[in-house]
């Protein structure tokens, strides 16, 4: 769009020339519309000052905008306040969108009429996208049409940033105080960039006299905006007002702090006198382990031989970037499936960094200058790391580690297998600083713990270590790297200690503690396979949420009483074509087979809205989560639903299969599917009917529970969506995450109504949303009348243990008082008092 050629503009009118500042119009004179000059016309026809495209003509014909071939946009405005003539006196000679040549006649004007009815005939030539160009006047005081008037010179990239504060009619601005803890580090920066991408206007972030485009994560982070600092956003383009609001909201809404189980921050650890043989660090993930130390160093590149064919190197880099992008994308999807919003945010930030124009441009420039793709990428990353490190902001300095992560990943993709590493199981891995992708690889190699010379407790790698349950210490200092590999050490992350020469007794003590922990786990595992009955004998089914047969096998192994929710949409996404009936049948059968003799609840496809399928084009939705999703998609595309129902009807044994319908909001939706199920079963010659249940995840369904229960075999409460639709808070909104709490008394009331409605028809009620996995909520759900909890597999043992510790009658007695409370926080507090967690 903006090329680097200079363009000389010829005079569009004949007459005296003078500066904009002398024009009798405050807006033009102040330069608000952009730089330019004025001509007092002596002729009656406006000519094109150069070749280009007419991109806009005012409805009242008194002004038009020409885009030049180097991308500059020129407003040609005839007379002052001529808008009031409503087009009278102006005759257009071209149309909007026309391609015009230099000197072409564009607009004829009735000079007498304009002179009589308007303030002035003075006409203007204004550059409206001045952040990309300079205007150099070609000195003259009087011009004739076609004589040289001005030169347009594209600005250098740095100048463009500085010039971005130039305003014009197309720009809106607003300020906000940054509410994000630690300022605009990678995740809020990525959120800002992602939000800007949802609009077609261009947007910039301004801090004092510096600014950065919102399409560059590095640019945003490079401004080093701190918490509570006042910044400005400017937007130019068609949807600028909406974009501005959305971006200001992002700045003002703090991201929920990452890591629910985050350890106390580094500062909370009391300083300790240094001890011989102990390195002091900061706890990034708790735990106590003992094992041989193994060093992990980053990839070291051999010196560049030069002599490369630039095209080949560019292609190699593109391929590597593509591979890394798709790897990260796959990790992102897995994180999304697990509903792990912290990992999701990290991978989103990494994807954004991989697209960052600053990084990519620097690397391709270096390749064009003769470097190998590996070295070009390495240097481009290192240069940006230095930028972040030099900002003097510890949080942003930690983000340099994310860049180094991408360095490693792309180098690994460029260098192939040679760059991977292997470590003995049980090792305690030491490194200057690990990256998130290192961590994911390491956690698959059964290492015991991690320690880093550098790093911080708020880094992404720390968040991941916590979520993987890997004890991790950071900021141990350079001494860490001098420890002899193989030396047995004790990593006491809880107390911030790396003990370099633990004696026999200490090693045995740690090993004993480790063994006891394993015993506890084993015991819990054994208990997990037993039924979960409350102290007063009420049986609660503790099932698992799964997305595949592999998940189901794991759930079965860990004592799941069944599958409480198979999200079948995961079978449909990430494919080029829809799975056919047989593929579906065998995928569902595999889940049934994995569960022994336990029941399996299979939910019909819940795509649509924001989960799009490549092979199933659906209309773009203004409000996707309120649109065509869940069972509504089945109504719009009955062929899809029929195919899935046919696959389900052919499962064996059908008695163990229960069908669940998502997003039901009225009884007819259920009746329709029931009828269709009957028809299809008839066609297939099947006499048995699987049980059919509905999800209660929309407030209308909860309010209609009694009517639904009349026709449904069971109800399953989806607390994730029920929270979103009841509280009017996007369940994926990072800034609202802490408030989307299904223990909100309004939700408890809806759940109470659901259970009461189901009881009228003697139907059972389960919960398959995330609330079921929260042990604090177990007594509440039991007290409300829920008898099935579908949880994530690692939680099965814990939830069963919690059930066994409760008295159902007591739960029923206390729960009504919780419905009277005013907030989720109050409910949580009351739960902690009545039913303390062990
Ligand atoms: C829910 O909404 O609670 C639910 C279980 O469904 P999903 O999370 O798949 O939308
Ligand atoms: Mg749902």
TrEMBL record:
Compartmental location: Cytoplasm
TM regions (residue ranges): none
Enzyme class (EC, first level): transferase
Keyword Chloroplast carried by entry: no
Cofactor(s) this protein cannot do without: Mg(2+)
E.C. no: 2.7.3.9
Keyword RNA-binding: no
UniProt KW keywords: Cytoplasm, Kinase, Magnesium, Metal-binding, Phosphotransferase system, Pyruvate, Sugar transport, Transferase, Transport
Record's GO cellular component terms: cytoplasm
Superkingdom as given in the UniProt entry: Bacteria
Gene Ontology molecular function terms on file: kinase activity; metal ion binding; phosphoenolpyruvate-protein phosphotransferase activity
Catalytic activity: L-histidyl-[protein] + phosphoenolpyruvate = N(pros)-phospho-L-histidyl-[protein] + pyruvate
Record domain HPr: where: 171-258
A Pfam family this chain is assigned to: PEP-utilizers_C
Record-annotated PTS EIIA type-1 domain positions: 25-129
Family designation: Belongs to the PEP-utilizing enzyme family.
Annotated protein name in UniProt: phosphoenolpyruvate--protein phosphotransferase
Lineage summary: Bacteria, Pseudomonadati, Pseudomonadota, Gammaproteobacteria, Pseudomonadales
């Amino acid at each position: 769009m903006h090329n680097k050629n200079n363009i000389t503009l010829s005079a569009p009118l004949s007459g005296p020339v003078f500066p904009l500042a002398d024009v009798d119009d405050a807006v033009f004179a102040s330069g608000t519309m952009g730089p330019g000059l004025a001509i007092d016309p002596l002729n009656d026809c406006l000519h094109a000052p150069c070749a280009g495209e007419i991109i806009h003509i005012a409805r009242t014909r008194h002004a038009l905008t020409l885009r030049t071939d180097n991308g500059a946009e020129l407003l040609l405005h005839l007379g002052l306040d001529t808008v009031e003539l409503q087009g009278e006196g102006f005759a257009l000679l071209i149309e909007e969108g026309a391609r015009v040549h230099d000197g072409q006649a564009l607009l004829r004007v009735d000079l007498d009429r304009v002179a009589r009815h308007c303030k002035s005939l003075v006409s203007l030539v204004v550059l409206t996208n001045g952040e990309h160009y300079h205007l150099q006047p070609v000195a003259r005081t009087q011009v004739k049409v076609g004589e040289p008037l001005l030169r347009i010179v594209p600005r250098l990239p740095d100048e463009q940033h500085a010039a971005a504060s130039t305003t014009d009619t197309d720009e809106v601005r607003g300020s906000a105080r940054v509410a994000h803890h630690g300022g605009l580090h990678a995740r809020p920066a990525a959120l800002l960039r992602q939000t800007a991408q949802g609009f077609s206007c261009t947007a910039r972030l301004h801090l004092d006299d510096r600014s950065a485009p919102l399409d560059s994560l590095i640019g945003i982070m490079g401004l080093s905006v701190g918490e509570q600092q006042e910044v400005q956003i400017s937007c130019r383009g068609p949807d600028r007002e909406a974009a501005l609001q959305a971006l200001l909201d992002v700045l003002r809404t703090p991201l929920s702090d990452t890591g629910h189980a985050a350890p106390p921050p580094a500062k909370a650890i009391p300083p300790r006198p240094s001890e011989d043989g102990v390195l002091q660090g900061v706890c990034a993930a708790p735990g106590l382990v003992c094992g041989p130390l193994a060093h992990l160093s980053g990839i070291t590149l051999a010196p560049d031989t030069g002599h490369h064919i630039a095209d080949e190197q560019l292609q190699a880099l593109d391929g590597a970037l593509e591979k890394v992008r798709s790897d990260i994308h796959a990790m992102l999807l897995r994180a999304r499936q697990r509903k792990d919003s912290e990992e999701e945010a990290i991978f989103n930030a990494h994807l954004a960094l991989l697209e960052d124009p600053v990084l990519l441009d620097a690397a391709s420039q270096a390749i064009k200058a003769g470097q190998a793709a590996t070295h070009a990428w390495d240097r481009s990353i290192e240069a940006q790391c230095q930028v972040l490190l030099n900002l003097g902001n510890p949080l942003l300095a930690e983000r340099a580690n994310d860049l180094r992560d991408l360095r490693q990943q792309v180098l690994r993709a460029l260098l192939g297998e040679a760059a991977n590493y292997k470590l003995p199981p049980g090792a305690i891995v030491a490194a200057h600083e690990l990256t998130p992708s290192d961590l994911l690889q390491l956690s698959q190699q059964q290492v015991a713990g991690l320690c880093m010379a550098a790093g911080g407790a708020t880094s992404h790698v720390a968040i991941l270590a916590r979520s993987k349950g890997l004890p991790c210490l950071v900021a141990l200092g350079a001494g860490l790297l001098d420890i002899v590999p193989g030396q047995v050490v004790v990593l006491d992350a809880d107390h911030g200690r790396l003990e370099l020469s633990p004696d026999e007794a200490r090693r045995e003590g740690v090993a004993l503690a480790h063994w006891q922990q394993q015993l506890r786990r084993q015991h819990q595992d054994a208990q997990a396979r037993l039924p979960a009955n409350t102290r007063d004998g009420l049986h609660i089914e503790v099932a698992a949420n799964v997305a595949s047969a592999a998940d189901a096998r794991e759930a079965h192994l860990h004592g799941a009483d069944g599958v409480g929710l198979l999200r079948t949409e995961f079978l449909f996404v990430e494919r080029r074509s829809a799975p056919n009936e047989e593929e579906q049948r065998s995928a569902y059968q595999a889940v049934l087979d994995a569960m022994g003799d336990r029941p399996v609840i299979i939910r019909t496809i819940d795509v649509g809205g924001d989960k799009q399928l490549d092979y199933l084009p659906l209309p773009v939705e203004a409000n996707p989560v309120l649109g065509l999703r869940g069972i509504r998609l089945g109504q719009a595309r009955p062929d899809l639903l029929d195919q899935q129902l046919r696959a389900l009807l052919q499962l064996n044994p059908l008695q163990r299969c229960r069908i669940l319908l998502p997003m039901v909001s009225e009884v007819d939706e259920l009746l329709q599917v029931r009828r269709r199920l009957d028809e299809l079963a008839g066609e297939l010659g099947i006499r048995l009917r699987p049980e059919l249940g509905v999800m209660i995840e929309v407030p209308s369904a909860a309010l209609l529970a009694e009517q639904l229960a009349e026709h449904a075999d069971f109800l399953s409460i989806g607390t994730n969506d029920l929270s979103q639709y009841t509280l009017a808070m996007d369940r994926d909104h990072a800034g609202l995450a802490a408030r989307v709490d299904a223990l909100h008394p309004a939700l408890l009331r809806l759940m109470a109504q659901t259970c009461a409605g189901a009881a009228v028809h003697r139907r059972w009620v389960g919960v398959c949303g995330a609330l079921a996995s929260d042990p604090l909520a177990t007594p509440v759900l039991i007290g409300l009348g829920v008898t099935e909890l579908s949880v994530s597999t690692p939680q099965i043992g814990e939830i069963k243990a919690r059930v066994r510790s409760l008295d159902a009658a007591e739960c029923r007695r206390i729960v009504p008082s919780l419905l009277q409370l005013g907030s989720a926080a109050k409910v949580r507090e009351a739960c902690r008092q009545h039913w303390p967690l062990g």
